Amino acid sequence: MHNLERPISPLTQNKKNRNIVYILMIVLQCVIYGVGNPITKIAYESITPFWCLAFRFTLATLVMTAIAGKRAIAELRTVHTGDWMPGALCMAGAYILSNIALNLTTATAVGFLMSLPVMFVPILSFFVLHRPYRWTFLPAQLAAAAGLYLLCSGGAAVSFGWGETLALIVAACVAGALVWGKKSLQSLSPLTVSFAQIAITTVLSIMGALIFEHGTDLSAIQPEAWWVIVYLAVLCSCLSYLLQNIALMHIPCSLISLTQCTEPVFTAAASFAILGEHLSGMGWWGAALLLACIVYGNYIERKADTVGV
After folding, report:
1. Among the four 4, 72, 153, 276, which has the fewest Cβ within 10 Å?
2. Is the whole model's pTM more than 0.90, yes or no?
3. 51: Cα separation from own chain's centroid
């Protein structure tokens, strides 16, 4: 009797091992964001959200310019603006609109809805990247949405108004940043894509601060707020963007968006350590369900690589 299973080549096995490294990069990104979310509340005690964004991304742009500004600008000149601008605008929109949504509804509702790019990415990937939708991935998407709901709402109902609508648009923007970001990486390096995304977000953040919040009193900003801004600029912007774009070059957007569903888990852990906030029993079930979804999603991608789908 012949063995009908297709043997796994060393090349395929090496690819699987590398994929785990890229998934861990996204997990690290989520850890960084998870710490950044609660400490941002500390900064907001003495600085408004838009000006926090403006200072954060201005500093991030300066850091990225010092690291690879000339190289990135030279690389951007070799391609059309349309190759990288959609992803950069989506990234900027996600950060700016999320601050507006927080002023219109509860942080719980925003946290849940903003964590739903996993529902949008496969659809956008089909139209933008022409990547076939794998129906085997649908259970992971639906279970992830359920897990996020339990984690962020504790089982309570989430009402739907203008703030919730805006948060859902933010989730679509995050999905767009992943999909169009992956497309831009076909002609640009991860460092250049990260530079472009941060620079565009800086311009739009400053415009938002001037339009919606006018001026700010620098003397009123506490020292701890400036340290938070440094953390957000260097780690949550420069490093996290770079980690995401490196991973995007090697693994599908759908797997990245699924892995990024762990961000609320790390946020809950950091909020407990820093702010003393506790996760409900339903929230723990949601966190466990998210972990199971990520394992299942990774299994689907690994299986697809094996059979050559």
Report:
1. 4
2. no
3. 21
